[in-house]
Design a protein that fits this description.
alpha+beta, flavoprotein, binds 8-demethyl-8-dimethylamino-flavin-adenine-dinucleotide, RIFMO-like, FAD, eight-stranded mixed beta sheet
Length: about 400
């Protein structure tokens, strides 16, 4: 088989890149390890910047009624909630809440409707020849048969545990990583979130977050210990703990419903430098991971795919050849480190760290008070959340 771009991974990054390339007239094939149903069984919150919505629209996707755009967010500090007016502080920019599952489903459907090729359940995917001058090769096994795809470029969109990064010689890159001493226990339920807006809560018992995932669905998360197991938590215990952390303002009216899904996620920051290796380009979680506190993961993926699709289209058409690809790594990393800084700072501000002493706690309290009292500090927070317009280099 021959295609222009072979994409590894049918998560949101791979699917979005495929859709953008298709729109630019570039042929692509996605090779994915899992079944489509398994990918859709993963449930995660999804909060998107206006620029990410624009990338989805450019890919021909409209989120419709499942997406809820808000001009503000709520910050609950020790049981008291405060509204941060995002749009007023950032000349009209806001955040859209939706479901990552529904977003992925829409991308899959559009891909199938356009006749684009996705190979699910591909085993033993391996990448060859991407550092050489010749066309690289993707090999995989399916139904006891070996297959090959020859292409011009490979896009590694296979997430943090994928094969793409693992195929690069270790002396060709550097990794920067931080693991956090806690995780998030998450519940997806058929009930509204604690508030219409994205809600982030700091509390001495730990962080909490509540977000809409459709008109009648919500994701809720509470900080938990890394040693916690799902068997230790019932729905009732989860809602009681969330209610406690939200305090009287929002806890007393918290809607609850049986959990449709419950999961525990460790929190991690990770950056790979560079993200281009000859004819292999990495995007999304394959290249960088942020703790979800700042809701930046998919937003980074959206900008990665936008820039990468343009650079790949340019290279495939032969005009100015690889100019865009040559710049891809540097531009992506500048954006990534900004998002990493924000996600790290917000995680530090809103979580309880097990090794925190009383001095650290007072500093955290002072920082939160400063944020609630200062319009300038709230503007900085709002700008980081909604993202800066592409023209500002954000
Ligand atoms: P994914 O979603 O991991 O998909 C990668 C795909 O590659 C496949 N794969 C392989 N295929 C073939 N061969 C192999 N050897 C392969 N190895 C892996 C996998 O099966 C999979 O299908 O990465 P992608 O596409 O880059 O997407 C990244 C996003 O999923 C991630 O950034 C977001 O979920 C992060 N995130 C959030 N981002 C936001 O922008 N806003 C949010 O509100 C938000 N909330 C969150 C989040 C992530 C969370 N967790 C789970 C860390 C909330 C949470 C709790």
């Amino acid at each position: 088989q021959r295609t222009q771009i072979a994409i590894v991974g049918a998560g949101p990054t791979g699917l979005l890149l495929g859709a953008l390339l298709h729109r630019a007239g570039i042929s692509n094939v996605i090779v994915e390890r899992c079944r489509a149903e398994d990918i859709l069984a993963r449930s995660q919150a999804c909060v998107l910047e206006d620029d990410s919505i624009a990338v989805l629209n450019a890919a021909g996707l409209s989120l419709g009624a499942q997406a809820l755009r808000q001009d503000s967010l709520l910050l609950s500090v020790d049981g008291r909630s405060h509204r941060v007016e995002l749009a007023r502080l950032t000349a009209g920019r806001g955040l859209t809440q939706c479901s990552q599952t529904e977003l992925t489903r829409s991308l899959m459907r559009a891909r199938a409707a356009a006749g684009m090729h996705t190979i699910y359940e591909a085993q033993q995917v391996s990448l060859h020849g991407f550092l050489g001058a010749d066309a690289p090769l993707l090999r995989y096994r399916k139904q006891d048969q070996d297959h090959e795809i020859r292409c011009d470029y490979i896009a590694g969109c296979d997430g943090f545990h994928g094969v793409s990064r693992a195929s690069v010689p270790p002396d060709a890159y550097r990794c920067y990583e931080r693991l956090y001493p806690f995780g998030w226990l998450g519940v997806l339920a058929e009930c509204p979130a604690a508030a219409p807006e994205l809600l982030l809560a700091q509390h001495p018992r730990g962080f909490a977050l509540s977000v809409m995932a459709g008109p009648q669905r919500s994701h809720s998360y509470i900080q938990c210990s890394l040693s916690d197991r799902l068997t230790q938590w019932s729905d009732t215990q989860f809602w009681a703990e969330l209610r406690r952390r939200l305090g009287p303002d929002l806890g007393s009216t918290l809607p609850v419903a049986p959990a449709l899904d419950m999961s525990i996620t460790p929190l991690r920051s990770f950056v790979l430098e560079p993200v281009r290796f000859g004819r292999l380009l990495l995007a999304g979680d394959a290249a960088h991971v942020v703790p979800p506190t700042g809701a930046k993961g998919l937003n980074l993926a959206a900008t990665d795919t936008q820039e990468l699709s343009e650079a790949l289209a340019q290279a495939c058409r032969g005009d100015h050849a690889e100019q865009g690809l040559n710049n891809y790594s540097e531009r992506a990393l500048r954006r990534t480190w900004r998002a990493e800084r924000f996600s790290w700072a917000l995680t530090r501000l809103l979580h309880s760290f097990p090794d925190q002493n009383s001095f650290d706690q007072r500093i955290q309290q002072a920082e939160l008070e400063h944020l609630l009292d200062s319009r300038a500090a709230q503007t900085v927070l709002a700008e980081s959340f909604v993202g800066q317009p592409a023209s500002a280099g954000g």
